[in-house]
Every structure is written in C-alpha cells, then in structure tokens.
Amino acid sequence: MKSAILKRFKEAIALLLVYMLPVVTCPVQASVSPRWQEQWKNATPEASPKIPNDQLDSLVAPIALYPDPLLAQILVASTYPLEVIQLQQWLDRNKGLKDQALVDAVEKENWDPSVQALAPLPDVVKILSENIKWTTDLGNAFLAQQNDTMDAVQRMRAKAKNNGQLKSTEQQTVETKVVENKTVVVVQPANPDVVYVPTYDPVVVYGAPVYPYPPMYYPPGYYAAGMAVSFGVGLAIGYAWGHNNWGYGCGWGGNNTININNNNNFINNNNLKNPNNPNNPNRPSNKTGGKGSNNWQHDGQHRGGTPYGNRETANKFGGTTRGDAMGTRQAAARQGQGQLGGRQPGGFGDGGRGSAGRTWSVPSGRRRCGGFSGSCRCVRGIPYTPGE
Questions:
Q1: pLDDT digits (tens, 9 = 90+) for 365-378
Q2: DSSP 8-state secondary structure symbol assigned to residue 230
Q3: Distance (Å) of CA 188 to CA 254, 265, 364
Q4: What's the half-sphere exposure (Cβ side, CA atoms, 13 Å) at 309?
Q5: 387 DSSP 8-state letter
Q6: Are 359 and 46 in contact (CB under 8 A)?
Q7: Cβ(250)–Cβ(259) under 8 Å?
Q8: DSSP-assigned letters across all residues of 172-190
Q9: Among residues 291, 294, 297, which one has the least CA distance to residue 259?
Q10: Terminal CA-to-CA distance of the chain, rounded, Å?
C-alpha cells in the first residue's frame, strides 16, 4: 500500500516538474504536419491601427521637399535606425576620410547600402542620428504604411507648391505629372551629377500644422527658423553612388514603390554578397518572378534587433515589437537558428525570430499557446505533434 502511494507521489512530482520546465525553442529540424502548415497559411495577423494622415503629414514634413532620389534613400535608411547611429559614430572616428577613400572604407562595413551611401552626406547623417526617435518613427511608419507615407509626401509637396515655396531652381526641377492616373509633384536634381540638400522651415513652406511638426535638431549653421527653401553647397556624387548611378528612386504609381538601381556601387556590392538578400537580382525567387528585383524590399537582417512599430509589421519581417514578452535581446539571440517550415521571415518557420507572445487569428477549434512549448507541441499558437 505504501509503495503504491509512494509511486503515485513520485509520478505527481514528475508531472509537476514537466509543467515547470521553461519555454524553449523547438529543434531546427522539427517535423511539422503538412496539414498544420496548411492551417498556418490560412492564419492571419490581427491588423494594427493605422497612423492618421495628419500625423503622417507632419512626420514627413522635414524631408518631403528633398529630391526624389535622396528622399527615397532616406525613407529606406530610416528602417535601419541602429545602423544610422553606427554610421554617425563611424564618421566621427574617420573624419580624415574624403572622396574615394571614404567610399572605399564605408563599403567594407556590413551596413545596408542605403546607410552606406549616406556617408558622403554627413549633415544628413547628423540630422537622422541626432533625431533618432523621429528617424525610427519615420522608418516604422514607412514599413507599416509605405503607400500612405509616400502619399503624405505628395500632400506636403502640393501645399508647398501652392504656397509658392516649391519651384524649379538652378539646384532642382519641380514638375507636376500624371503617373498611373495620379497627379504627383516630382522633384529631381537639376544636375544629376550634383546633390543639393534643401533646408526650410516647415511652418513657412507648408503653413501651420494640423498635428505638430516634429522638433528637430540641425547641425550648427544648417537651418534657421522662419527660412524659406534654400540650398547649401552642392556635392558632386561621382563614385559615391556608382559613377552617377543614383541608388534609389520614387515610383509614384499605384502602390508608391521605391525603385533600386542595381548598377549602384553600394547596392550591387551588398546584394551580390548575400544570395538570400531580398533585393538580390540573382536570387532564384527574383529570377523566377517571385519578387521584383527592381523594387526595394526591407531586409530584416540589417534591423539589428530594433523593435518594429507594431505587431503586424513585426510578424511580416520576422522581428519583435516593444510589447513582446521575449524582448529584443532574446529575439536577436534566436536569429540564424534556421527555418522550421521553409517559408521566408514573417511566415511559417521564420527561424524562431520573435515567435513567442504573438497574437494571431488561428483556425477555430484550436487552442492558442504562447510561442514554442518545451515539448515542441505548439508553433505560434497552432498545436501539432512532431511527425504527425
């Protein structure tokens, strides 16, 4: 009798210990039932609330009048705020580098090409790094609402143009065009060999804001309140962008795409180094039409664990948000663990990045669970049995 009671007691203790085991990541080669993979494909992330138009207008106000190639590059670079900070620190340590020596040196850094190509524009880098909260907010908005963010640029350009503050000069050309049934204001450098960065007071060029303009830091002597659009000294782009090959452009068509120039030095070198880079034109999926090789796509590998703006965007790119229970440090530690189901980041089997704590709408009749369980019976809220 005593032995039976003791046996049951030991079984109860063992069961308790199992339930107390910490949550761990499933083995990389875990077998997932095809039917659960199909269930996962049909699962949809809960939509995140959108940023209102008046807030987007104010957010883009400081750069909306930049020429299209520079505007596009800044929008892309803002999605990698950690690398922008690293570039600023790098420039502070390498003040003696100029021209080709600067370009050659920055090419060796493992940063996104949009960040590398900002090195010859130290004042622009200073603005982005010293206003890193605004830069991060801009990048998050652009990733979550790319079409809306670029529409906001057009609204602000239209305001400035109607106020007589945006017009063609010897530094830039300003044209109103119809692109795919949309009327847009296009700003291009007057001389494709030279970059001029405009400076201006948003209140003067746009008028009073509906939502407050972001308070911005500018390098000394770069900006003066109450100033209309003006230009500093032009910068000859030369080798910096690949023998006058701008890296980025604005496709003001239906979905407001960002176009990339694969002949640009930085873009070409970066893409060809990494066969898995979503912007690599030689990637098999790009060659077969899976992804447009001339349309920019965010590369989460350059995010450096920086949280995304909302859960929906984090799910899309296989990252985390500030609200994730596991935190960004754990997410970064789990990068590179491989894929469970062979789909790209943001889908099923994203290498374990940012999986715990996500909220997904799963097929009815199936319970939710928090990420991976210790026994590998649950993947992102969808239970399964290995080998089923």
A1: 333 333 333 333 33
A2: E
A3: 20, 21, 52
A4: 22
A5: T
A6: yes
A7: yes
A8: EEEEEEEETTEEEEEEEES
A9: 294
A10: 40
Distance CA 29, CA 44 (A): 25
What are the pLDDT digits (tens) for 26-41?
333 334 455 545 554 4
Measured in degrees and rounded to the nearest 5, phi and psi for residue 112 equal: -60, 145
* Span 132-170, pLDDT tens digits: 999 999 999 999 999 999 999 999 999 999 999 999 999
- 311 pLDDT above the threshold of 60: yes
- State the Cα–Cα distance between residues 78 and 76, nearest whole angstrom: 5
Longest dimension (CA), the chain: 99
Q: How far apart are CA 135 and CA 223, in angstroms?
A: 18
Contact at 8 Å (CB) between 139 and 79?
yes
Give the separation between CA 320 and CA 160, rounded to whole angstroms: 37
Mean pLDDT of the chain: 74
Residue 137 CB coordination number (10 Å): 18
> How many residues are present in the chain?
388
- Between helix 81-93 and helix 132-144 the angle, nearest 10°, is 140
Measure the CA–CA gap between 300 and 181, rounded to whole angstroms.
33
pTM score: 0.70
